[in-house]
Amino acid sequence: MSVIAFASDTGVWLLSTPRTSYALRIDATGAPCHLAWGPALTLEEVQEFVTEPAPPPSSFEGRPSVGDELPVDGGPRYGPPSLQVRFADGTRAFEWQATGHRVHEPAPGSAELVLDFRDRLHPLRVALHYRVHDDSDVIERWTVLRNDGDAPVALQRADSAAWTLPFREDYRLSHVTGQWSAETQLRRDVLPFGETVLTSRRGITSHHANPWVMLDAGDATEDHGQVWSAALAWSGSWRITVQRTPDGRAGFTAGAGHEGPYLPLGPGQEYTTPVHAGLYCEGGFGAASRAWHAYTLAHVLPHPQEIRPVLYNSWEATGFDVDEAGQKALAARAAALGVELYVMDDGWFGARRSEAAGLGDWVPAPDRFPGGLAPLAEEVHRLGMRFGLWVEPEMVSPDSDLYRKQPDWVLHFPHRTRTELRNQLVLNFARRDVAEWAYGWLTRLVGDHGIDFLKWDMNRAISEAGWPDRGEGADEVWTTYVHHLYDVVDRLRADHPHLRIEACSGGGGRVDLGILSRTDQAWPSDNTDAADRVAIQHGYGQIYPARTMAAWVTDVPNQLTGRSVPLRFRFHVAMAGVLGIGGDLSHWSDAELAEGAGLVAEYKRVRHLVQHGTQHRLRAPVDDGPAATQYVAADGSETLLLVWQRTSPHGRPSRPLRLAGLDPAARYREARTGTVYSATVLREYGMQPELPPGDWASAAVHLIRVP
């Protein structure tokens, strides 16, 4: 149960989640300062943390760089500020003055604390929000800033929250890095002294980093140890600054935006930062991931209870060579395979015959779809599948009717080159007329054609983020763009409650808690090579649940890597998330179609475990040995074990895999062989899944509790 308590004599606030505590107070200067974040404490125990700060040892030190709830630029503070403002008179410093607090229940099972402040001189108000839930140890934090004056204020930095860790002898930082087609590569490194900055300056979450961090004392494992982590719910540019101070403390601050642009806050205007959610847990990185997965299912996704369907996507089969007859033929083959959602990808609209033209002209190509999309949609529905469509609403081709009509709609600086990437430019979604245009054609498209699913893509990052009409306020584009994107998606879903959406940006360029709060799944990478996907999916799953992770089975040799692996291996890798198929079914042999149909049916029997069970990473993809992950039903009644092994070198001893999360008193029968195992043996001594001989071996083991 979550509780918010206050000690009026010491000014201490204590937020209690089911297993953890978070404590803070307002110090003598009026600033909110951190006290504790970790194992559960009582309000009486927290009082022991209340001490007067020692004076700095020298005139060069100032206020400690770690320890404020929202470090500001002002006074003797020399660490990275979470809040940087510039007032109309040129003043940059902010001085805290507490003005009150509020505690309320925004929803059953949730509690929220709001601490209100203002600057001591200027009419800038700052409200720090903290929200806790009865069913989660995740604490949600965000900040609201309001200009109550008659002069503008420039927000040079407005982070959502800063987090402080307890003292440890050492610290380690976990995060992901990568690039297009190689996203979410997990890194765990000793946290260096000084400041470590993780960021995206691209206007999207990015392929190169993701807005979450985990910190530990360097001794945590997958199953043991204390882990502190946080994730930012934002789909634009962002920045996380992690500090390790000379006196041995560690903390981090995070928020929307990158260095350089500032957010203008006019008289009477208010700015709400995105949520920055934090989690402390014991039980290692695995327990942290499971807590994030549960939180995402309970408090982020719009339809968490749903089972995501098996989908087919036409892209790798057809490329831009799309027409009604070809799509109907593919749909028939997909339906026979057991597919439940058929998605037609790029090439169905305007003059779209290649990457060079057509984006922005969202009308079915009459030479390819003479009767519009209705005949194809009706045929897909007749075959018993839902119908989906690829769209890229934020982009325009210079060779398009839209661009010829509205060249000022793109992001650009006057008298500067408009850089084309993938032969396209970025529409300025910060403009209300552009966002309204996108919403208008999207809602008509979905409503007129009975579309059940959209794959919403964005195939280039933002550059030349100019808005000439805005003059000095043009930097607003970085935040308003994202807010208008969210608004279009929200309105579209309100118009069409049956509609489901996949977030995509050339693969994993837009995956975060912000976009997942209004979509149903995400595309982690354009790289569908099963061997590469094991590592990509391993990093993705550190924070985001398998229920959100789209994974395709595609043809070999793989289009990107040229690698060939067995169909069974490709399916077993894709079965670790939301299964999709992207191969050219017209070229699959009868044997491949039969094997594929069998594996689709197998996935349907276990997908409730993948999409709604708890995940245990039994062995990471750290070498050529087996990688393994396990999904367990909430009641321990059944489990799925997936194992992938790249090579089988001669002489290497096989390693049993110790399973987790099972009912210790139960016995489990393997669905395929009928073999019965005791939970004690599986948990303490392990099992050796039967893998076929040779390289690229894999197995899916479904165990069901014996009554």
TrEMBL record:
The enzyme's main class, written as a single word, is: hydrolase
Question: Please, which domain of life does this record's source organism belong to?
Answer: Bacteria
User: This chain belongs to which protein, by name?
Assistant: Alpha-galactosidase
Cite the entry's keywords alphabetically. Answer: Glycosidase, Hydrolase
- Region Disordered, as annotated, extends over 50-69
UniProt domain Glycosyl hydrolase family 36 N-terminal: residue ranges: 30-261
Gene Ontology molecular functions: alpha-galactosidase activity
Query: What chemistry does it catalyse, as a reaction equation?
Result: Hydrolysis of terminal, non-reducing alpha-D-galactose residues in alpha-D-galactosides, including galactose oligosaccharides, galactomannans and galactolipids
Quote the Gene3D superfamilies the UniProt record gives.
Aldolase class I, alpha-galactosidase from lactobacil brevis, Golgi alpha-mannosidase II
Q: Note the InterPro entries from the entry.
A: Aldolase_TIM, Alpga-gal_N_sf, Alpha-glycosidase_related, GH, Glyco_hydro_27/36_CS, Glyco_hydro_36, Glyco_hydro_36_C, Glyco_hydro_36_N
User: Per the UniProt record, which EC number(s) apply here?
Assistant: 3.2.1.22
* The Glycosyl hydrolase family 36 C-terminal domain, residue ranges: 627-703
Q: Which family does it belong to?
A: Belongs to the glycosyl hydrolase.
Family annotation (Pfam families): Glyco_hydro_36C, Glyco_hydro_36N, Melibiase
